[in-house]
């Protein structure tokens, strides 16, 4: 009887979802990205040397909009990371399969878009697709570069596109009036970006002030020349208290070989004010099976130098991605 009731409930939810879709722009979407990684991380204590199955920011979400009137739409998105490999959220100590990603509600009109919730900062979004190994273990630039922040309590406005240009501005409330940081204002953190895009070029300049205790400036450009893409990113980050700073840069490329084959690689480096440095090298190959799925393989290495000695973190992986 219990199974029968559950089946009826599921059917009712699906029917309601189909009805909502008919009336509004309503979409359920997701992505499964699984890889089998041979991982060696000498920088960890204790050192890691093992095979891992990784979920690589697999996700499930719902997004949509509906008309309030002829000039204004309500918009929303609720997206969660799904830990397919072991069901353990990195922030919940193994208790939850789901972890919050971009979740917001807001409004959109001819004058732009306003959202509030938890979301990637304009500076993070300014990277575009120049990180060719985004979300991959040791391949993502977040493993050696600041600025890859998804923050809570964000209010963000984005302009409409004007001759290829867009701009975004975000305020981040600290909500910490009782803490030692005394962050109790509407805009304890600020993130801004100016972006440009046409058929063969994407470019952006962005700035964070006191986001994750960092002041950060980022410049990105990504060219498309036939079947080749070449990306460049430069960044400077400084601790708000002035205790440390770092300079980072990245160059990346992809080459479409046809028949669904794509080769790609990237090289980047961060120099720290304490004379240490991180140096990343990644290369890989994708084979697209159709518009929604691919298989891939890559090798990533990050050499970490602390001023007196260097250690290597590396990963060789094979995997697949399915979008729906």
Kindly describe this structure.
It is a single chain. With 324 residues, this protein is mainly beta. The chain has a single domain, classed as Porin, CATH 2.40.160.10. Helices cover 8% and strands 60% of the residues. The protein has 2 helices and 17 strands. A 16-stranded antiparallel barrel has the order 1-3-4-5-6-7-8-9-10-11-12-13-14-15-16-17. The protein is globular and about 55 Å long. The two termini are 32 Å apart. The N terminus is likely disordered.
Q: What are the salient characteristics of this protein?
A:
mainly beta, Porin, 16-stranded antiparallel beta barrel, 2 helices, 17 strands, globular
Give the strand line-up of the largest sheet. 1-3-4-5-6-7-8-9-10-11-12-13-14-15-16-17
Largest sheet: 16 strands, antiparallel, barrel
**What does the oligomeric state look like here?**
single chain
Query: How many domains make up the coordinates?
Result: 1
Instruction: Please tell me how large the radius of gyration is.
Output: 21 Å
Share of residues in strands? over 45%
| CATH C-level | Mainly Beta
Low-confidence stretches: 1-22
Taken from the alpha-carbon principal axes, the silhouette is globular
Distance between the termini: 32 Å
Secondary structure tally: strands: 17
Helix segment tally: 2
The CATH topology corresponds to: Porin
Q: What is the residue-mean pLDDT, rounded to a whole number?
A: 91
Helix-strand topology string? HEEEEEEHEEEEEEEEEEE
């Amino acid at each position: 009887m219990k199974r029968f009731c559950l089946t009826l409930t599921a059917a009712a939810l699906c029917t309601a979802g189909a009805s909502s879709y008919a009336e509004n722009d309503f979409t359920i979407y997701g992505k499964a990205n699984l890889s089998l990684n041979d991982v060696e991380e000498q920088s960890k204590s204790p050192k890691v040397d093992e095979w891992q199955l990784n979920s690589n920011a697999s996700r499930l979400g719902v997004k949509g909009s509906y008309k309030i009137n002829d000039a204004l739409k309500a918009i929303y998105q609720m997206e969660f990371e799904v830990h397919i490999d072991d069901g353990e959220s990195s922030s919940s100590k193994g208790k939850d399969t789901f972890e919050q990603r971009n979740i917001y509600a807001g409004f959109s009109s001819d004058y732009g878009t306003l959202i509030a919730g938890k979301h990637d900062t304009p500076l993070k979004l300014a990277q575009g697709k120049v990180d060719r190994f985004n979300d991959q273990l040791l391949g993502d630039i977040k493993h050696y570069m600041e600025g890859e922040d998804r923050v809570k309590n964000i209010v963000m406005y984005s302009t409409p596109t004007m001759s290829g240009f867009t701009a975004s501005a975000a305020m981040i409330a600290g909500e910490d009036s009782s803490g030692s940081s005394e962050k109790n204002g509407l805009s304890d953190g600020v993130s801004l970006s100016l972006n440009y895009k046409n058929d063969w070029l994407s470019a952006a300049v962005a700035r964070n002030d006191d986001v994750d205790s960092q002041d950060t400036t980022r410049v990105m450009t990504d060219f498309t020349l036939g079947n080749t893409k070449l990306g460049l990113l430069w960044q400077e980050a400084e601790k708000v208290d002035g205790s440390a700073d770092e300079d980072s840069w990245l160059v990346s490329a992809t080459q479409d070989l046809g028949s669904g084959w794509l080769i790609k690689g990237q090289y980047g480096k961060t120099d720290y004010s304490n004379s240490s440095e991180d140096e990343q090298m990644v290369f890989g190959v994708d084979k697209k099976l159709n518009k929604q799925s691919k298989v891939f393989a890559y090798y990533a290495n990050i050499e970490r130098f602390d001023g007196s000695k260097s250690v290597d973190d590396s990963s060789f992986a094979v995997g697949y991605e399915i979008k729906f």
